[in-house]
Amino acid sequence: MNDTAPKDPGCEARVRASFTAQGLMRTLGASLVRVSPGLVEIALPASPALPQQHGFVHAGAIASIADSAAGYAALTLMPPGAGVLTAEFKINLLAPGIGERIVARGRVVKAGRTLTLAQSDVFAVHEGREKQIALLTATLMAVEGREGVSD
Amino acid sequence: MNDTAPKDPGCEARVRASFTAQGLMRTLGASLVRVSPGLVEIALPASPALPQQHGFVHAGAIASIADSAAGYAALTLMPPGAGVLTAEFKINLLAPGIGERIVARGRVVKAGRTLTLAQSDVFAVHEGREKQIALLTATLMAVEGREGVSD
Amino acid sequence: MNDTAPKDPGCEARVRASFTAQGLMRTLGASLVRVSPGLVEIALPASPALPQQHGFVHAGAIASIADSAAGYAALTLMPPGAGVLTAEFKINLLAPGIGERIVARGRVVKAGRTLTLAQSDVFAVHEGREKQIALLTATLMAVEGREGVSD
Amino acid sequence: MNDTAPKDPGCEARVRASFTAQGLMRTLGASLVRVSPGLVEIALPASPALPQQHGFVHAGAIASIADSAAGYAALTLMPPGAGVLTAEFKINLLAPGIGERIVARGRVVKAGRTLTLAQSDVFAVHEGREKQIALLTATLMAVEGREGVSD
Q: Does the beta-carbon distance from C137 to B132 stay under 8 Å?
């Protein structure tokens, strides 16, 4: 893993302020657990708000926190003032989302000037044990000088 | 598109019942607009529950309805009793989710015995005009004989 | 499909010259069949140079022509002087590559200033009949002002 | 990484025999460097047979060895007699393929009965230094009892 020198010493405050502005994270009940340069962790307690039709956490809810974790991991390494947008992501679902809590850990694979590649490993925590349930791979784009798009 | 002969004449009722069980769709405020063999449309009115940090609809919310639309399009062509699970999906985000409403139209590209490939075209509707904002490609798995997994 | 107004009237000549420089296409035996704004078709006759272990055309050979077809479809809509690079692609393999010939048809889904989304539909031609065997989705990047990277 | 207990003690011989049958690997000039349970490495010397139009190794050639490395990593953990097919893969290209040699290291992320998730990290080796140039994520399918499809 490389390019993890933080370009912005206030990266945690920056990510926390941006996360608070994500209405969807509040709607889902997600919270920001950890922010460090190139690494961001988001947790999501299971709730009746989240299932698909078989009672498992919906792939869309899993993808939502995994995308945010990957995006914010990328943002920690972007220059101050740049905003981050997801250009595309892919998620492989390895096992049903069953447990008390879903945790997504985003990490930067390669930080570039325009495009950053990040991955999120997603785990279900059931009776204290973690099991990997998904892997997301995302291309994030740094956007500078566009009105309304920062952090 | 091919293999679109409906294997289950009650496919609309089947999809509607399954959709109602998806807690996440209710949480987001999504509704099922149209169901026909190999084609499913889901709509999502913009609301303060859905944005990412810049005020656009969050990629995770877009992916959630696009994944459900693709999955249900696949389900319409699966044998009665089979359940559908998403094995993986990829989404390309083409433009910010800005508008009164987001619409995802899922369609089957190739229906197979075990794996089905489906795509969802996602549009933002703004002042009555549609603009494509995302394209999702999903691999859906038909699951038979597994307790708790049907439709 | 949109944004298909050709920005370069000489787009066919441009793509043909670039294709000729792709050593890999020559190695595989691929040829350029058709070039029009936003659409490029590449054909690959089956040969003992191409199989994977079961005798089907290798997914890598299928991906190679599908990536080139998508990339050149994108290039036809880029400004003169810009070079095209693949940022990422995803390919779903729907059926084994069996037949006399593989054909990849690339088309632009959304042309953007920096990023273009394109897809290639890939068919195996067997005894005169076409069967879709793969679908590739690619993000192409326009690169300007970088030495050695044009077309 | 998990589930890496080899199910077939002869996994190296099995992969070597299968690799030899891949005409495309011979065409490209690729060789099998290392095989162990859940891990396979393939090397590809740069040559005039491989470039795209700017002289870099073509994304299709990179994807070809990365797909084979991921597929064979999956095969090492499949039961004897099962054949491996790629259902889909996604590749992110991080830097141009420039160097004396390209190396793809495939590893299993999650081995399942039907579907296995594997990734390949791809490096360019230039003047003795490795630089990551791509990341491939693949879904591999175990096929049993289908004529002509084993290993």
A: no
Please indicate whether, in this complex, the C-beta atoms of C88 and A114 are within 8 angstroms of each other: no
**CA B80 to each of CA B28, B77, C116, D83: distance values in angstroms, whole numbers, following the listed order:** 28, 9, 40, 29
Long-range contacts of B144-147 (CB under 8 A, 24+ apart): B144/B79, B144/B81, B144/B82, B144/B83, B146/B83
Q: Is the ipTM of this complex over 0.95?
A: no
Residue written as token pair 């002509």:
D148
DSSP character string of A4-30: -S-S-TTHHHHHHHHHHT-HHHHHHT-
What is the distance between the alpha carbons of residues D123 and D25, in angstroms, rounded to a whole number? 17
pLDDT tens track, chain C, 151 positions? 445 555 556 889 999 999 999 999 999 999 999 999 999 999 999 999 999 999 999 999 999 999 999 999 999 999 988 999 999 999 999 999 999 999 999 999 999 998 999 999 999 999 999 999 999 999 999 998 888 888 8
Query: D137 to chain B: nearest residue by CA?
Result: B88
- Is the distance from CB of C97 to CB of C133 less than 8 angstroms? yes
pTM of the full structure: 0.93
